[in-house]
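Dissemination and training. As part of the outreach component of the grant, students in the summer workshop were shown how a complex can be specified as a set of sequence lines and then modelled as a single object. The example used during the hands-on session is reproduced here so that future cohorts can follow it. Participants entered these lines:
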Amino acid sequence: MAADTRRRTDTRSEIQRVALTRFTQDGYDKTSLREIAEDLGVTKAALYYHFRTKEDILESLVTDVGASIEELLTWVQSAPSTRERRVEMLRRLATLARGGVGDMMRCVQQNEVALAALPRTVDLVHRYKDDLWRACMPPEATLEDRLRARVAIMTVLVANRGTADLGGTDDERSETALRIASDVMP
Amino acid sequence: MAADTRRRTDTRSEIQRVALTRFTQDGYDKTSLREIAEDLGVTKAALYYHFRTKEDILESLVTDVGASIEELLTWVQSAPSTRERRVEMLRRLATLARGGVGDMMRCVQQNEVALAALPRTVDLVHRYKDDLWRACMPPEATLEDRLRARVAIMTVLVANRGTADLGGTDDERSETALRIASDVMP
DNA sequence: GTCTATACGAGGATAGAC
DNA sequence: GTCTATCCTCGTATAGAC
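and obtained this result:
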């Protein structure tokens, strides 16, 4: 329990932790590397040992979210899309948003514009927002069906961010949003 | 019709025009003043004659949108809120989004995060997104009613941006979104 | 009244010493 | 694995030409 050989330099994950908070709170562009470095008690250049660019820090967060979405996507595509399965997809998405990757999802949503400028992650973000409804909508679906699917997904996600002023607990808002989304989903 | 005394130095509105395009396309933070200046064939410093800061350029765009929303808000508050009036509000909002201020609304939505950092405009943006539903929802409305109102407004606005991949013409998408939004609105 | 020239501090980024 | 020194571009600001 005394001094051990355990390296305490998980600097990389420390950087991710601080960046996640800052990026979500102040936005990606308004967060400077100097701030992140000072929060950790290191210099700017130290960050550049662990990440090639500032964008890479954001990208590393997106990748983690992408993995979860990827799982969900695989499940969606594992069987023909029925209304029951589409509603179940919304439920699983809501669970993700409230779980461990919820913070990262908030960060990604908050910094959508910044993400669009990152060539490597732009595909992931598309998966994250587009492929979900694309996977559950047949090509011959009407425009209204497609728009409804998108609004439904958006409803679940928006409950995860920026609706605290509506009152109720996080869980209440999440449940309510899920109910509305299921109602909208074709 | 020949040469007249009309000053062709509407540089101020030219700056706004170019900035509107750039801010919407590349995002506020990724757009540099040098780019805007070069597009217009002037120097950076010239921009500073017409606008005190870069933020002021964005703010000038927001203010124009704010005026339109303000009108709509006044109408909403001019009579007790019935469902018919709430649906009519959505219709008017959709009309705004397709009309002359549509481009500015897209720009404002795109740069929501950047806007949040501008002290003077943060109130306007809140009006723009929050006060609309607040004005049409009685305080004793249920959480679901309030969330539904917000989703309805969001649906109309989102049709104005980033749904081109769903197919159909702009008008078709706008009409369809309005139908869905009316359906969701309590 | 409108713009150019020029400079300053802060930001992201790189090279290389330790 | 961490830091110093350095570079370029950015937003900002001012002095002064026309």
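Chain B touches chain A through 35 residues (CB under 8 Å). Students were then asked to discuss how this feature might be tested experimentally.
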